[in-house]
Description:
The longest helix has 7 residues, at 107-113. The chain has one helix spanning 107-113, and strands spanning 8-16, 28-32, 38-42, 48-53, 56-59, 67-73, 76-81, 85-92, 96-104, 117-122, 126-131, 134-139, 149-151, 162-175, 182-197, 205-208, 213-218, 226-228, 231-236, 239-244, 249-250, 254-256, 261-269, 272-278, 285-289. It has a single domain, classed as Neuraminidase (6 Propeller), CATH 2.120.10. It contains one helix and 25 strands.
Amino acid sequence: MPKDKKLQVLEVIKKESLPKGRKGRHATAAYQVDDGTIFYRVRHPPDTLFVKCGGDKIVAQLPEDCIYNCGAHGDAVYFETASHKLYKASFSPPDGITVTHLRNGLEALVMIFNCLQNEEFLPGALCTRNEDGTLYVYRMSDDPDVDAIYVDTSSDDLYGARLVGVERRQCVSMDSSTKLLIVIQIIFRNVVVFEIRDDSLNKPSARRLNDSVILLEVPPSFSPPFTRDSFVYIVEGVKLMALNTNTMEFLPSVQIGNSMKISSIIGVHKDVVTVIAEEGEEAPLISARLFDGYF
């Protein structure tokens, strides 16, 4: 990664205050889906999930259980409840937010089928399943049988690592031998990102373990990474960094606005990144325009 000189500054195009809730500034989380819609979650019992539309606040009817491990995938937000049930929340104006029960956790199936499998739900609406010693990873939005991605854990590279991102990219194979471009095949390319936090590091590094799996190693001071398309975005204080997973190179660090400290990245939509920042006792939601090559 190139040594930082003076950080280039991203232009802030939108700023809004987040509801504080009962626990102060960190009580509100936000999740951005593919069409740019932002879901807001006020995290105190009972949890509240809503979107803003035309000046109105559209509130979802959530299950009575507390919700955990929320994350945005595709056009919806997914979450787990305290009773280990998975739900999908999608917004369709003017109809509002539809909350759908997808399935129960696979733990409920172990006694029925007498198979050794253990499913774990993780932050970001990610899932892992250990089946007879074999690790599979996927998103809550995926079919756990059809879409699960096998991860080779035979080496020590992933010891102590945690799953932080799963992307399924649609690649189109074209026949360009004729004047007409004909689609030959639509292929899904998987990108799985694991993270290790290491006290001995002073800067992040990344390496590809195989065609699908990337290992990110960062100092503990970094915020959780955010994976979108061909990029993994990471944050340390005021610095926003982007790893291009095609070239496996980090782009030069940038900052948002006037040395604004970033708590977390909640979405990248087209050329705009949206983050939760820290300004004194406030935690505003900030959107900034990315430079070319960063998305």
